[in-house]
Amino acid sequence: MIGVWFGVMTLLIVTSVMGGFARDLRARIRGMTAHITVTSSPASRLGSMENWEELAKKVRAVAPDEVIAISPQLEWPIMISHGQSPQPATLVGIIPDLERQVSGFAEHMLDGHPPDFTNFSKQTLPPDWGPCIIGSGVLANHRHKDIIFVCDGAGAVDSAASALFTVNPKDKFELLVGDAEWTGELNSGGEERELHAGAEWLKSRKDASVKDWAGALERAFRLLAYDPKGETRPCVVVVFGKALPPEAAYREAWHRLPSDQRRWLRVFTEAEILVEPGGENVRAAGVITIEPGPGARLALVSRVQDPYIGRSISVTTITPEDARDRGIGDKRIDPTNARLGIVGSFNSGMNEYDTSIVYAPLEFVQRSLRECLIDAKTREPILDAEGRIQAGRVNRLRVRIRNYDDAESVADRIRKGLGGRHGVITWQAEKAILLQAVAVERTLTGVIMFFIVIMAAFSILAILSMLVTEKTRDIGILRAQGATVGGVMTIFLGEGMVIGILGCGLGLGSAKYVLDHLNPLADWLYERTGWYPFPKNIYLLDRIPHQMDPPVWALVVGATLFVCLLAALWPSWKAARLNPIEALRYE
Amino acid sequence: MSGFLDARDIRREFQIGDRTLPVLRGIDLSVEPGDVVAIVGPSGAGKSTFLHILGLLDKPTSGSVLFKGTPYSDLSDGERARMRNSTFSFVFQFYHLLPELSALENAIMPIMIQSSILKWPMVRGDARRRAKSLLDRMGMGSRLHHVPGALSGGERQRVAIARALMTNPEVVFCDEPTGNLDTVTSQEIQDLLWSLAEERRTCFVMVTHEPSLARRAHRVVRMVDGLIVDGEAQQAIAQATAPPPAPGPADSPAGNPV
Ligand SMILES: Nc1ncnc2c1ncn2[C@@H]1O[C@H](COP(=O)(O)OP(=O)(O)OP(=O)(O)O)[C@@H](O)[C@H]1O
Ligand SMILES: [Mg+2]
After folding, report:
1. Residue A284: band (very low, low, confident or very high) from pLDDT cuts 50, 70, 90
2. Which of residues A415 and A235 earns the better pLDDT score?
3. Whose CA is nearest to atom 6 of ligand 1?
């Protein structure tokens, strides 16, 4: 029974977690990848997208019932310079209102606010800057981000603990809760363990509360201002609390600093914050920016969990690797620089997107590219196959349809409807390899797991065989009293089924329990052993997913009971066939 | 030929390795309704084997047994099981009670076996009542809920007898019912069996080494070496040569070792 129990339990847990992974992965792929993508035809990629509104109308007309939303994109490879080394990324020009209907990035904004480029109004941005929304992993490679969290007790520590993983500090982090503080060093390996230790420490301080905000902020500022190496590096102070400190508390804290430290920091007045880049947005999000003094660190004092807001990046457009497909041929293009102020960042859970995508308003990208599409040698504008300037366009349409399972058939209709001059691919095709890998992995585990059930069935076989031997005399007695072959067999089959049913019941119950408490159990395991079965910053999920799929559970239980029945059959048959006299003689 | 229970030329051989061991070598016996027949004979004569064949627990190598004119060989497995349950019953030397069940439950067992799961709740009350009164009748009224392990040998045999009578069988087979009991208990069980046989007019076929029990039987059949040595006439010899020679049963060391 224990065998059946554990067999069923592991089988259910593993399939459910795998199922959960597959489901979450697919959902995330779907969330971030449009159901259907229409690209330019291979021959003249950009030319045919000259008028995207027209094309979008055609697509809609092909499948008016299925197509829900269409979003144009102009996507171009860039290098980001931020800190020391440039880093490749993809600049995607979008119309936010349309893009939000197609892709799910809006639901993954770190600060929980809907993305809105207009928060970065023209007045608050330098005229040649553009606003952008970046994947949370885009800047993560830039080491030198220190973090100081100032936390109120109950309620706030949990969000601080999870924010610790999303903001992904690089060198060092300081946590201040009430009177206690904790320092994590991240440059000596074991980063993940250090983050977990910090998170645990935060969670253990639920009871602490900040009575004196000015004092707490003063401590944070001292840490901020303390700079033994004299290096300048960005640093973030994030304040977590049910009620945030009044602005006066910041000022008071600043005034309490010794004057030599005070010069590192400057606290802005409300009016001054407004004229800062991102000030508008920053204020809307409940963020107060403290501008560093000359040579000082930047401190962003923020309640929200988005440490990127208010920072800026420089991007340089580059010649894409697939230049030929884009109709540029072998011409080199002029790199163009643009400066973007970050108004938000998203964490979609899809590493591929989170580390590479920089969203910016469509017209801004179009404008930047118009400048860049100049042949570096001849200084002539680059023309496409049809002799038009390759600018002012989009290079793909993202389509969202009513039911993502229909993507294949709808894509077919669109392909035909557009006369074959466009590439039309579905989200499954776009991510085929990943999806296949997951499916294969799932099937394989299923097969392996089923062997566990077979093992459990053998334990039933063994138990019943022993029982038959042990009860030989009793079987003889029953037979002498007129029990039929069928009757004796029923008894032992029944016994087998009782074991099977009890095992399945216990297995079901404990699997349900384990799955319901999966994350607390994982945390507990981490506390005891220091081993965390589910590294949060690898999977970019702060919970272990699972999916309790009733048909799958029914299948597992049904198959197990069936195997148990088969295993019980042989011993029962043996018992029923016993010669009653031999059985009675048996001692 | 009575037409009630007839054994005709029963032979039974056992195969031991490549040797054939003839245990019964052609036995004829007829039993009348209400007969109390005692089978006596030296150990190894084949008495138990014969009794098992009569009681449908074993099949003969050749020869046939007829009950009310129907040969056993015509019966299906199901019918044999039904007859073992309701028409015949057995009392064994070693009681053969189920150790997990109480005295009362052991006595009810044959009824339980004969009724389907659906019918059982309906007959259960009645069966319990009858089992109680039977056990009462045997002086077991205060031991109804003891498991066999908590009962003495004599008490266990009383439970076994009650079990045998629960279905009101037409023939009760007893294989050395007192073989395992001390003299006094043995005497009590004998008296009990005897009075039950008298009052119920049930046919009893019993194998016994107790001359005192055999003497009370309507007929005594003596078996030697797989054959019947003529019954009635041999009774005197039986008494004279029985292993525990016994005019008085008082100090004979009855019973086999367990
Ligand atoms: N299953 C068997 N296989 C082989 N030989 C058997 C088997 N059953 C009985 N015998 C042999 O048959 C012979 C008769 O056995 P049986 O038990 O019928 O004797 P019995 O007259 O009842 O003796 P007792 O008075 O000791 O009980 C014995 O020699 C026994 O060894
Ligand atoms: Mg015997």
Report:
1. very low
2. A415
3. B14
pLDDT at A244 over 80: no
Six token digits for residue B8: 């005709």
Q: Which ligand is nearest to the CA of B49?
A: 1
Strands B203-207 and B171-175: parallel
The matching CATH number, chosen from 1.10.443.10, 3.20.20.70, 3.40.50.2000, 3.40.50.300, for B32-59+75-230 is 3.40.50.300
**Helix, strand, coil abundance in chain B, percent, nearest 5:** 40, 25, 35
Closest to A250 in 3D by CA, of A232, A229, A273, A233: A273
DSSP notation for A119-130: GS-TTTS-TTEE
CA-to-CA dists, residue B113 to A67, A581, B166, angstroms: 69, 19, 12
Numbers of helices and strands, H then E, in chain B:
8, 10
d(CA B233, CA B217): 14
Chain A: residue whose CA lies nearest to B78: A484
Which of B10, B11, B14 is the pocket-test mutation for ligand 1 (most atoms within 8 Å of CB)? Answer: B14
* Tokens 């006094």 belong to residue: B184
Global ipTM: 0.83
Residue B248 CB-density burial (10 A; 0-12 exposed, 13-18 middle, 19+ buried)? exposed
**Two tokens at A242?**
């049910």
Maximum alpha-carbon separation in chain B: 55
DSSP letter string over B42-83? -TTSSHHHHHHHHTTSS--SEEEEEETTEEGGG--HHHHHHH
Task: State the pTM of this model.
Answer: 0.56
Identify residues of A whose CB sits under 8 angstroms from chain B CBs: 473-474, 476-485, 487, 579-581, 584
Question: Which residues on neighbouring strands pair with residue A426, listed in sequence order?
Answer: A36
List of E strands, A428-513: none
The three-state secondary structure class of B27 is strand
Domains of chain B by residue range: 32-59+75-230
Ligand 1 environment, Cβ below 6 A: B 14, 16, 21, 23, 43-49
Tokens standing for A312?
């800026």
b/e code A85-110 from CB counts within 10 Å (16+ = b): eebebbbbbbebebbbebbbbbebbb
Q: Which atom of ligand 1 is nearest to the CA of B42?
A: 25
pLDDT in tens, A110-121: 766 677 676 544
For residues A159 and A111, give the distance between their C-alpha atoms in angstroms, rounded to a whole number: 12
Spatial separation of the C-alpha atoms in residues A116 and A543, rounded to whole Å: 28
- For residues A177 and A202, give the distance between their C-alpha atoms in angstroms, rounded to a whole number: 8
